[in-house]
Design goal:
It is a single chain. With 742 residues, the protein is an all-alpha fold. Among the domains are: 436 residues, no CATH class; 71 residues, Tetratricopeptide repeat domain (Serine Threonine Protein Phosphatase 5, Tetratricopeptide repeat, Alpha Horseshoe). It contains 32 helices and no strands. Helix 2 crosses helix 5. It is globular.
Length: 742
Amino acid sequence: MNNKNKVIEWIVKIGLLIVPVLPLVVTRSLFFPFITGRNFIFRIIIEIIFVFWLWLMMSDPVYRPRLSTMVWSYLALIVVLFLATIFGISPYKSFWSGFERMEGFWAHWHYFLYFLMLISVFRRQTDWNRFFFVSLAVSVLTSIYALFQLLGKLAVHQGSVRLDATMGNATYLAIYLIFHIFLFAFFFFRTKNIGLRLVYLAAMLFETLIVYHTATRGAILGLLAGLIVFSLVNLIWGDNKKLKYLTISFFLVVVLTPIVFIAAKDTRFVQSSEVLSRFASISLTETTTQSRFLIWNMAYEAWKDRPILGWGPESFVYIFSKYYDSRMWQQEPWFDRAHNVFFDWLTSAGLVGLAAYLSLFGSGVVILWRLLKRNSQEVKTAGIFAGLLVAYFIHNIFVFDNFTSYIIFFALLAYLSFYETLSKNNESVVTPKPDTSSIVSKPLRVVVICITALAVMFSLYNFNVQPILASQNIIESIRSLTYPQDDSRTRDLDRGRLMLEQGIKRNTFGTAEIREQLAQAADKISNDPGTSLQEKQEIIKLALDQMKIQSEKFPYDIRAKAFLSTLYGDAGDVGDAIVAAQDGLAVSDQRQQFYFLLGEAYFRAGEEDLAIATLKKAHDLAPDYPDAIHNYAIVLIFAGHVQEAESLIKQHFGSEVYPSTKYINAYAALKDFKKVVFIWEKLIEQDPNNLQYRLGLASAYVKTFQDQKAIQQLEKAIELFPSFKAQGEAFIKQVKEGKLNR
């Protein structure tokens, strides 16, 4: 090996050593700050070091990946995923994904290159020690961040008690730490240094504490299952009697822990704990559990329609709508994952894709089995990695994968492949047999590297830099289009619109998300009384034009149909709003949201009977769905069927008049201002410091000729909001002079 190759090798190694640091990266300046930044940095690193690795492979066969069971399994997965991408319903989306997930084939291609480089340049145990020690150190830093969240010194990003550290999601943090708990155990058993063992043990216990406080049930069940597997492997194959006795004790503790918990789950101690009570709530009737079964059934039904290669990666939003179950109303309106990794692979890449993915676990188990049969001294190692694979497998039954779990999982697979080769050949370094005949000539190497470098530069700019700038455009637009937290009520609509237009012109894989942000902003602005009619029309037109393009280019984008219907309604084009909502229902006839949009469009078009029939259908699909009840009742009131509406409201909420601003306009349209007064009074009881409520009540009092009460509300509003004094006093003067419209 010449000195030049040695330098190049270290460039590749340093790039790979940076990867486990990326879970610390949070980019607030980018859209989805816990996802985009670290993914872009990862891709940039992989693409750059790929050029150097390619030179190494051409100049010295020692740097070429050695084919193994694991390599073939992963290669099969990539090939199947590529086929599923090109034959899926939306190849572009399947290839690129979007800012929120940043997966798709393009991401998995980078993970595959990452895996190949790991097994090619990390050829000694010391290489892997460096990599894992970096990752372990980062996991401790991440856990310290989570500890500060636990102590209340730092905010939990999810807005709950479930710690999420730099992951932004408790589930992501839990499985990330579980990988490292097992890695700490691996190094614990490999060293005889008592001091290091104490450090590793302390780190394991610390990170286990953090995992507990993520309250991630699937991950913790996986951890327990992994510990049981570790114990069983040592009990069955271990030959150290002293260690066996310790293992039996450990096994009993792990097995008895859930049994004791089940027996005590109704005690005050458990119920008073926000973490323990979350586990105690697990049942077949729990809302989350029921929703999981519903969404898994949707995924199964979808798979039956495309069983071989599935629908393509990143297609689950369409699947979720096409096979939507109306009982899902209690959950978020859009799911882009099945919340089960195996159903995700089944729907995105079919049975072939799922088999290829499972072959990664199978290859890992085969490697560990061979390790056990070959060397009885490796029982603890086999037990640790078998336990880790089981823990990850169980965890994946309940959630989906993400960047931080992928990078450590594929690194683990690469290490198992390395470890098998090392153990089988009884070597200290993985070194293929020299074959100088396969070395590529230097002139050809230079040509290949120049072409590759140009391709990488093209990729860096178009597939990384441009999307990064587009992501920043989204953040800048949100800041410009949103009113600040203070009372200034100032914003810059022109700049916000410009930022979104710039982001769209970049033509990146994030364009769909930019269009959605534009549509959401336009809808909000259309209902903002502080925005001029011209400004509303300009941004609605821009949003409509972009969503039309989105719908035409991506006919399977079901969300675009919902946005189109809303925007057409905002623009006053009720005919096209009806058509867009009907297009959505043609795909998803169980989805209440499209019935709501269609019912509203019918009402705006003056088709009251059709509006009532449509919203009744939405109500009948899920009679306990509050939004369906309210929408149906409101349109009944507008149509003059007050008794029927109030009977429906009383049946569900115990009172004929429901205190919500949703009903104000309906009763006002019938000039039933007594009920308007009743609603405003109830709302003020709930939120006495709400300025708009008090102004609304004052107006209602004027309508019912209760001027003194109206003045009292305006005076109270001035007292609560001194900045309102001038405007409030002007209103009071108008009331006293009888100039307000009754």
